[in-house]
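User: Please predict structures.

Assistant: First:
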Amino acid sequence: MQHNPIVSPEDWLAARKALLVKEKEASRLRDEVNAARLALPWTKVEKPYVFDTPGGKKRLADLFDGRSQLIVYHFMFGPDWTAGCPGCSFLADHIDGALPHLEHHDVTMVAVSRAALAEIEAYKARMQWHFPWASAFGSDFNFDYHVSFTKDDLANGKVFYNFEDIESADANDELPGLSVFYKNEAGDVFHTYSGYARALEELVGTLMILDRAPKGRNETSVLSFVRRHDEYEDAAKPNGCGMGSTAA
């Protein structure tokens, strides 16, 4: 039940103008953060990562698909999982519509998971998605970019995620993340950015819309309302995703 005060139109306008000041401050801060992100130093990718794709084995450089910029979403879907993470699926529902705009802006976006390609393809068909999705099964890629963890990693009590050591109890064998790369004319690939946890929220348009609705996200815990889009008639299930579980 909502408990917002009921006021006159004049008082509402005054409150709204006060909020607008903060919204403009947040917009300016976001611009500063975006500029700082673009100014980050890069590091050259030396390891020869190979992925399974519907078009056969491909190197990281091949995933660019003729463009100079590559955004990889690390989709939580482990080798022994029966389906992809509901929270990652929630985010993935927002990718297809953006693809034409990204691709015409020299950006390729690809999902990468450690599940076998056949499992990925079956789940992708179930969800009716079209974005490229590659398997990193047998590769160090997800481990090197700190989104996949072995049993030994988890048994050590802490894992490195979101640029800090976190308790293994707050982790999983797979966690979500975003890694970004640039390829120059010589074919050299550079890692330019990675983001985890709440850094991924801005990719999810539904959350941005809910933040403006009267009840907001209306969560009992992070993403508690989220289901795979073909499961909303089912009983409540944990979302199983680490998005938002670690402070940005």
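Second:
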Amino acid sequence: MTPALPWFAIWTRSRHEKLVRDQLIKKSDVDVFLPTIGKWSRWKDRKKKIDWPLFPGYCFARFDPRDRLPILKCMGVVNIISFEGEPAPIPEHEIEGIRQLVESDLAYDPCPMIREGMMVEVVHGPLKGVVGRLIRKGAHARLILSVDLIGQAVSVEVDAADVRLY
């Protein structure tokens, strides 16, 4: 897989994100990323922690946009997020920031995309190098990592001393 290929957002049918991911993993020329968050589900007889998609309705893939037909033919795929008929690439730093967060031990929550606030870069800790929007709450700070193309974001608490203006 050549790292020069861009990332794209794939819009999926409701609750088909994992099915789409599993089909795309089988394609040798596609790199796939489905960020998840653990949530407790309750049934009549038990509770279980289940991985849910962090951005419901979306899966991310890196592929050659000229060869998108096999992606569109996957069961559960609605479309590839596009502008003027061409798949819209997602900046590498947005995907890598989300990947770095979900691989860390930090607690995070999905949140609505927030356009206000300053762009910052984390300079210390497990998210060093990650760029996002900073929201201050009292003595604590929250960093918003976003995928602007799909209007989705995730927030994580950070030490305000660990960030600098981007």
